[in-house]
Amino acid sequence: MRKLLGFILIATSSLALGRDIFVDNIAGDDAFVGDFPTATTNVNGPVRTIGKALKLTLPGDRIVLAVTPAPYRECIALQGERHSGYAGRPLVLEGNGAILDGSEPVPDEAWEFVAGDVFRFQPARMAYQQLLRDGKPVVRNTAPRGEKFPELGKLEWCLHHGWIYFRGEPNRIPQQYALSFAGMQTGITLYKVHDLVIHNLTVQGYQLDGINAHDGVRGGRLISVTARGNGRSGVCVAGGSRVELAGCTLGDNGAAQLLLEEYSLTRVFDSLLIPNTAPTFVHGGDARLYVDGKLTDAKDGE
Fold first, then answer.
1. What is the bridge-based pairing of β-strands 156-160 and 139-140?
2. Residue 251 forms beta bridges with which residues?
3. Is residue 269 a contact partner of residue 286, using CB atoms and an 8 Å limit?
4. Which of 87, 105, 204, 240 has the fewest C-beta atoms lying within 10 Å of its C-beta?
5. Is 73 helix (H, G, I), strand (E, B) or coil?
């Protein structure tokens, strides 16, 4: 399977012959045209946001993210022919190891004292949530919904009746930790696109899904993508979409690492799905899942 992944990466780099559009969320400017990784004139240089790059994108182009000290904080949607590629020349979102993050800091005044070392606050989006510390998921207590409040260990959290509960360390309050929660809904939405590659990108801290192949995706490939710490799933494939995951890592997501819905078809190669807070996959409707070439009939993965 590693040979297959290597072949995909080589093919992607050699066949992506469209225009490069550069994005830099610190040094970029959305008044630029995105044609160079650094600014050279009043108009030539990287754009600041992925959303702006998508407005400039034509079929078969490549969006190239700069890796900076700050994550990219936006929700993006790729849809239709403009955000698609061709057979042998996909549209590419090249992450270069960057992070797309939908979390926002918990306001200091939002915390309420509960008892002992336990505090709580109520986020605006309550159905699914996440808690992150210093940009990484906090250990979650996964007691089933509807049961009484679980016993939290030190530096653990849970979602209970719409409240986020957090237990810190003795003599410390939540404001002393760099805590954030899922503020944005979905990281990347794919709708009726084809011949698309997302490569080497971490997507985290979104209230629903890190990546949602919502409907009609054909030839969608996620390569070396990490989807972690999202409220519902790391990746959701739905609406008859056809998606491949190769060399990906999914973990610390709330309801499923990989969520499969309706008549979708998903192929997973050489990837790590970690059932630490939820099943590796949740399999609904007539969705089909192949793992390393083998059809999986189980409804939920462990």
1. parallel
2. 228
3. no
4. 87
5. coil
The answer to whether residues 219 and 194 touch, using CB atoms and an 8 Å cutoff, is yes
Number of H helices, E strands in the chain: 2, 27
Q: List phi, psi (to 5°) of 54.
A: -65, -30
Residue found under tokens 């959303």: 51
Residue (of 181, 182, 186) closest to 76 by Cα position: 186
Residue 182 in tokens: 């899922």
Buried-state track 217-245, b at ≥16 Cβ within 10 A, e below 16: bbbbbbbbbbbbbbbbbbbbbbbbbbbbb
Entry field: residues in the chain:
302
Each residue's pLDDT tens digit, 74-125? 999 999 999 999 999 999 999 999 999 999 999 999 999 999 999 999 998 7
Q: Are 49 and 25 in contact (CB under 8 A)?
A: yes
What does pTM read for this prediction?
0.90
Strands 131-133 and 272-273: unpaired
Residue 298 has a pLDDT of 66
The 10s digit of each residue's pLDDT in 201-237 is 999 999 999 999 999 999 999 999 999 999 999 999 9
pLDDT higher than threshold 80 for residue 242: yes
Annotated domain spans of the chain? 2-102+185-296, 103-182
pLDDT given for residue 5 in this prediction: 55
SS3 57: coil
Token duo for residue 37: 């990784």
Spatial separation of the C-alpha atoms in residues 92 and 73, rounded to whole Å: 19
In 69-100, which positions are buried (b, 16+ CB within 10 angstroms) versus exposed (e)?
A: eebbbbebbbbeeebbbeeebbbbbbbeebbb
What is the Cα–Cα distance from 300 to 290, expressed in whole angstroms? 13
